[in-house]
Amino acid sequence: MSQMRKSIITGEWVIFASNRHKKPYAYNHGKAVKENCHAACPFCVGNESLTPKERYRTEKNGSWQIRVFKNMYPAVDDITFEKDNDPFYESAEGMGFHEVLVDTPVHGQEPHMFTDEKMYEVLCALKNRAETIGSMDGIKYVQIFKNNGPMAGASIAHSHWQLIGVPIVPTEQTRALSAFKKYYAEKGKCLMCDMAEHEKKEGKRIIYENDEFICFIPYAAKFSYEIFVVPKKHTSTFVSMTEKQYRSLAEALKKLITAVTCIKEGVCYNICFQDSPVKCDKDYHWYLRIIPRIGALAGFENGTSSYINPLLPEDAAQNIRDIMKNI
Fold it and tell me: Does residue 202 surpass a pLDDT of 50?
């Protein structure tokens, strides 16, 4: 059962999903984290019966290349959900859609090993599912994300992405949209477009760019080596991009993820799409974050929602640029 409760102090929504503790965990923890190879991988070829019924797939030469199905342990659900009736607090039914997208049939193959064409196919599949989930009744926001490695929240080692559609606009996106609207009202321009232009002019935090995307360490990065991947042209949402933009994003992601894997051995990372609400607002400018998981949140961060980053963005950018010279 899933339920959503809103903090009366911060306005943030928390999802309670009691079934999540039952999900399998494919890693052993010791001095070094390693995969537990004794359990059958539900995402591998031949184990398709271990997952729920497919909702989408791509094939090549009669074999699947990408599979999508409902998460067996969903954070939100389109079937079983509930609402609390406490009159003092605000809650909502934990209604929504939670899908898994397995991006490769090859166990052990990770995105930095993909070709640009393979990455493009993955992005097209994500677009398909985001559009489908976003069209469902009651869905106001679709979050696309990837947890790569146990320190990034992955419980299964086989490479995969997730999409969660929820009946509310989360706090992060609400705040971003408010900032975009305020900036446009004051300056008549897009905040993210101006940020991208400023970063290109400054140059010191830029790590990569191509025809359609500019990639940089944000000025106030919360995490060491956090990367923003921003469309150069004003683009409100991920699903509204042109084919050229999807191909350019595939090229950028391949290069950036490869660089991230070279920061340190066994680095884990998250990819988070910071997208527009389903009812797309023209003021929003979508972007993508890559967050290497180096270090962990501690008492100050948890107590204040402020972050301590031990690495200046300019130094992080230089380190990434040095890495990219050799890959």
Answer: yes
What values do phi and psi take at 302, rounded to 5? -70, -30
AA identity, residue 85: N
Q: Is the pTM of this model over 0.85?
A: yes
Amino acid 21: pLDDT: 58
- At residue 223, does pLDDT exceed 80? yes
